[in-house]
Amino acid sequence: MPRREVLAIVVAVLILFGVPGAALGYRLGWFAAPSALRTIDVVAASPENGGFQPDVLRVPAGQRVRLRFSVPDVTHDIAIGPGLGIDLGQVDAGQVKETEVTFARPGRYTLYCNTWCSPNHWRMRATIDAYDPAQPDELVSPSGPDPVVAALVEQGIDVDALHPAAAVPAEKPSASRSEALAQKIQLPAELEDAAWRRDHAPAQAHEALMARLPALDSQSAWDILAFLWLRDVPSTRLDQAAGQYAKACAACHGESGDGEGPGLDALRAQGLARHHDGSEASTALDDPHTLLGGTSALYYAKIRKGGMGTGMPDFGPILTEDETWALVDDLWTFQFEP
Amino acid sequence: MPEHRIDLLARFPWLKEVLRSRAWQPAGALFTLACFVLAISAGLLGTPAGARNFGIIFVWIVWWALLIIGLVPLFGRLWCAICPIPAPGEWFQRRGIIRRSPGRLRGLGLRWPGRLRNIWLQNLGFLLVALFSAIILTRPAATGWVLMGLLLVGTLFGMAFGQRVFCRYVCPVGGFIGLYALLAPVELRVRDREVCRAHASKDCLTGTARSYGCPWLVYPGTLRRNAYCGLCAECLRACPQDNIALNLRPFGADLLVAGERRLDEAYKAFIMLGCALLYSAVLLGPWGWLKNLANMQSLAGWAGYAAGFLAVALVAIPGVFWLATGLARRISGAAAPMRRLFVDYAYGLVPLGLAGWIAFSLSFVLVNGSYALAVVSDPFGWGWDLLGTAHASWRPWLTGFIPALQVLLLLAGLAISITVTYRIACQEQGAAFTGRAWWGTLPIAGFMTGVTVLFLRLYLG
Fold first, then answer.
1. Do both B219 and B318 map to the same domain?
2. Which residues of A touch B41 (CB under 8 A)?
3. Is A97 an interface residue toward B (CB < 8 Å)?
4. Is the whole model's pTM more than 0.80, yes or no?
5. Domain finish residue from B193, B225, B257
6. Where is B9: in which H helix or E strand?
7. Same domain, B308 and B237
8. What distances in angstroms separate CA A53 from CA A45, A68, A70, one per listed residue?
């Protein structure tokens, strides 16, 4: 048989059986590159397409692992929290991206999507249990109850209810407008106390201020509160929080806080834009009636545990406590001009 | 030799040497087979994201663009010569890939039924694929299964019925390639029919020591159209009289070959025109509900869509064309039977149909072609970067020019279609009655203009 005929037959056999065989072998891991690094393959799809698969990962704490994500449907932004600062950025449909990570301490972490990928985007999460290699059989438990939330519950404050403000400013209060005034007059001691401000709503503070300083006009009092509420917040912290807001909150609450984000329609369609008492959930963060009646602690709790019965997801598994407080600080900028 | 022909083999001897070689066809088939098997593997094992899967991008964007925009309009059935689908079956029959094996072809030797010696099965096969196209064109796994099915069926047909029976009577792609090959400016013909008539051994049919008999079951001595010539060049290798020519000829010459027009081919012209229109509406149109129906969101909805699709392609378009033909017959006073006129005039639709397909294809080929760069480096979507292009970003090409190109193509297709129809009408009426031929052309031209307007409405909004 001529040599080129033999060559052609060999090539044909390689094509017909070698190509699919090699692909199948690669797929089944026969030819996986030898590496000391453990690689975990995760499919990252919208919740209606199966979400993260697998949705629970167990990895040894303190050991480096490679997480390889493949995206089958639409663009996602894959991140891991809380407190790890891992964000793979946008991963388009069909793309594969990987990251190497070491979970320094045992605990429960969250794998989540950081971009509006579908009406059920907020459901796109998976759990990463980083177990202690010395005690691999011990269950990894989520962190204990949040003391701020626990205190609110103890005080009988309904975190899920609306807390409307009895009085609101005529125009948006401005911190810079009142800075000189606030330093000239003697402010009530409790208002100077950051802990007190966390547990009291601006509307309550306004009432207290007006009671102590009856000569003060109402708008000036609001301006002073704006100054106090934003006084200790560095602009870098606000910038960071604004970035977080854009990723996590703007889809529903709107980029400008007007409560008309593109995700809201989907929530309404799913009946998730209501409070547990049936009232329409207010998503407008620029509405003083809605926001000025609540406390920083209340909003911290709402962010961390989500809105019971509403589409507001729980960000506790994603954000650190400090990141949550920063987000609350950012929230006040919808009411107060710096 | 007929008028207006240039024999490329006489002009370029090197081309003759290449085509006479037994190696070029298997080399092409091995290359396309490698791509085909890779497409099947990627479809079944790779990422389900179509834009990142070799199966979707290289079959429905790259191959389709090459086929409908380049190969078929310019070279007719050249693709069929290197098509991977019948290749394994053909190699089995021949007991080899390149060489001419001694002895007869191997196989079960089953006879293909006489009733099916036409392209009706190909028409049905194409429609069947078309009904599921919204799924097949976007789901890699569906593409993988369809391609694997075609490869298996093509191979089994080669083993059971021999020759290129699958290509000639079954392949859903082969049917429309044959129809549009009638337009191609290249033809394989004999130089002198008298030489063939006088030549007793008919080596082009029986084969020689270095060639096989025509696998397409075509006798080159009487070949007048491209429809069933697979351009494999076996006859060129076989002919001891050096009587085979590869001619450059006027575009669309085969459409004017009277006496070989058939209802099954006429229906292929209707189906292709209808599918180009319907695809444009479903895949490019603004109607989300139509896409949902085609995507089988519900079985009942899809059944309605399928019924509508078939009704438009098989009844509505031929029905309106029948009425136009009836009007043409009446006002031109043609004596030919209605059925014959209906079939003959349908060949006038071929240029417009091809123009519609090219216009439709441009809209997604130019928009999505850049995905090929990333996919060639990562065919399975597994995160590979074989050629360093895996991260090439998607970039639509020439989007600003696409509507203008589509308008030009469709108007050119319309003009050629009307011209062809007029010349067919002249054949019906006789050269002395060109005035009557114009009257006969008028209603058909009206039909074609209406179809063109529909295309333009879909593309331009």
1. no
2. 19-20, 23-24
3. yes
4. no
5. B257
6. helix B8-11
7. no
8. 8, 12, 10
Is the Cβ pair A94, B98 closer than 8 Å?
Answer: no
Same domain, B225 and B291: no
Residue A110: closest CA among A133, A83, A71:
A83
- Cβ-Cβ contacts under 8 Å for A245 (sequence gap 6 or more): A253, A327, A330
Instruction: Tally the domains of chain A.
Output: 2
CA distances from B389 to A99, B370, B385 (A): 20, 11, 7
- Does some domain include residue A338? no
- Which residues constitute the domain of residue B317? 271-461
Domain count, chain B: 2
The residue type found at B302 is W
Highest mean pLDDT among A103-112, B62-71, B422-431: B62-71
- Give percent of chain A above pLDDT 90: 52
**In chain A, which residues have their Cβ closer than 8 Å to the Cβ of B46?**
23
pLDDT(B315) > 60? yes
Chain segment B324-336, per-residue pLDDT in tens: 999 999 999 888 9
Place of tokens 């290197």: B82
Would you say B162 and B212 are in contact if contact means Cβ atoms under 8 Å apart? no
Helix (H) or strand (E) holding A68: strand A64-70
H-helix or E-strand containing B30? Answer: helix B24-45
Length of chain B: 461
Q: What CATH number is attached to the domain comprising A56? A: 2.60.40.420
Interface of A with B in 7-36 (CB under 8 A): 8-9, 11-12, 15-16, 19-20, 23-24, 26-27
Q: Residue A337: inside a domain, yes or no?
A: no
Q: Which of A52, A18, A230, A92 is nearest to B392 (CA)?
A: A92
Q: Are residues A327 and A186 in the same domain?
A: yes
Q: Is A7 a domain residue?
A: no
Distance from B418 to chain A by nearest Cα, in Å? Answer: 45
Task: Report the pLDDT value the prediction gives residue B49, as an integer from 0 to 100.
Answer: 81
Q: Is the Cβ pair B33, A23 closer than 8 Å?
A: no
